[in-house]
Design goal:
The structure is a homodimer of 250-residue chains. With 250 residues, chain A is mostly helical. Chain A has 2 domains: 63 residues, Winged helix-like DNA-binding domain superfamily/Winged helix DNA-binding domain (Arc Repressor Mutant, subunit A, Orthogonal Bundle); 163 residues, Four Helix Bundle (Hemerythrin (Met), subunit A), CATH 1.20.120.530. Helix content of chain A is 63%, strand content 4%. Chain A has 11 helices and 3 strands. Chain A is globular. At the A-B interface, helix 3, helix 4 and helix 7 of A face helix 3, helix 4 and helix 7 of B. Chain A binds a DNA duplex (30 and 30 nucleotides) through helix 3.
Chain lengths: 250, 250
DNA sequence: GGAGAGACGATTGGATGCAATTATGCCTTT
DNA sequence: AAAGGCATAATTGCATCCAATCGTCTCTCC
């Protein structure tokens, strides 16, 4: 017995991460992806056994999710998944619009490093390549949304404003925007099924978004904070308008 | 024994509110008011005995505070109060500026009820009366800040945007803004002591803020959403500029 | 037959107990 | 005497346990 018995003794209290954190991300994922339906009760016992922990970390995680606004809580009656209505989605878009626009403007005020700028360019070019590929598919769409998300996170990070970053992450803003209308079921429930089909060419709104990204990137490269902020604001609000027009067209 | 034995039986499990919620607000208050210094460790056992509960609700509350960004957490090493720097305060002001400005614009878009408008007027007039009182005191200043807070909350509520509301409440934005520079020690630590003295007449920044409120209220009454949004944005950013000029003047 | 009261079961919120990890102090060693 | 190592103490994180509350079902009474 010369070896330390550290590596994997009991496996029970042997976590790299607190169980509360694990449960938190897991349950949040289940809610955001719609695996747990809105309005459903969140029985602590069931979640605990499902995830292989006791109720204590589950209850902690649910408290956090309540603060985040994803679930609601009634004294002695447990937790339920909040039902996110169309109005909430629009509200979240408005909130994100101003936060992200400001982040964009601040990033220019702060100044972009050459590395950041080149990363930004690569994200934009990746999106352009996908749009210009001459074809379209679920795979390409997923990829474009990947570039989209990378573009937006980079801008938000470049603002160096951690408060805005966590404000965007917080509340419903982040979950809802997983990737507008397609990935996030919270949003896609408001989009008619036929509009969710995969066409042969990139849909108009993606072409338009790609152009928006390029315009924003250009404004950033030209150090025009005011323009960059305005372009980013318009970009997000276009998404809101599109969602409204699409949702009412049933 | 004809009376119901409901009112106050054991007092132990007889809460109108979960202990987690109580602990949450209590500890948050302690942190925001500076009663617990930044960087201090938050020993669960001590907090529990101090507040007369067990460690379980305390741990839940600390998890929420971590999500809110007020405390940081290290695995197996407990929780510590996050040290909020000047940069964080400025970041929070930027975030709040755009959120509250948007809320203001949205409130006009949505439309104000006559009751809301009259409440708004009364808050503005209360502030005006205090500023015009011809004297000044700690008491008057507290009152003016009360009217200030009422004014801002009303505008935010009138936006009908619950996401923006909780975004403002969340992260550090709300605590920091308890009442700029005076009430909140998080901010006032950056303000030289001599500037915190109580003068005989209302200080310039309060007179200016009062004027701003009146201008915003006027724009709201005239249904000018764009103007109201811009005025509110400028109002908050003025506070940021003032804080910067005051903090660097040591 | 319907309404209300009461009881049972299920589930919650909180307190306590236990294993593991980290911090602290003392001792040894060079 | 300083540095390192070891043991002890303190504290964390989680599981378990218990009392209180809520929901539901049944039984009774009108």
């Amino acid at each position: 017995m010369t070896r330390k018995s550290k590596p994997a003794a009991h496996d029970r209290h042997q976590r790299a991460e607190p169980a509360t954190t694990t449960v938190l991300t897991q349950v949040r994922e289940l809610i955001v992806t719609g695996a747990i339906a809105p309005g459903a009760r969140l029985a602590a016992e069931k979640i605990a056994t499902d995830l292989g922990v006791s109720r204590t970390p589950v209850r902690s995680a649910l408290a956090v999710l309540t603060a985040e606004g994803l679930v609601s809580h009634s004294m002695n009656r447990g937790y339920t998944v909040k039902d996110i209505g169309f109005r909430d989605v629009l509200d979240a878009i408005d909130a994100r619009a101003v936060l992200e626009a400001k982040a964009c403007g601040l990033s220019v005020d702060y100044g972009w490093s050459v590395e950041e700028l080149s990363t930004l360019r690569s994200h934009v070019e990746r999106g352009r390549a996908i749009v210009d590929a001459g074809r379209w598919s679920e795979e390409l769409e997923r990829e474009w949304y990947g570039a989209n998300r990378a573009f937006h996170s980079l801008v938000i990070r470049a603002s160096r404003n951690t408060i805005i970053r966590s404000a965007i992450r917080m509340t419903l803003i982040h979950p809802i925007f997983g990737d507008i209308a397609r990935i996030s079921p919270v949003v896609s429930q408001y989009v008619p099924r036929r509009l969710r089909a995969i066409p042969d060419a990139p849909p108009d709104h993606i072409v338009e978004s790609q152009q928006d990204h390029e315009a924003v990137a250009a404004a950033i490269e030209q150090d025009d904070a005011v323009l960059a902020e305005k372009l980013m604001l318009d970009h997000t609000l276009k998404g809101k308008k599109r969602l409204i027009s699409v949702a009412t067209r049933r």
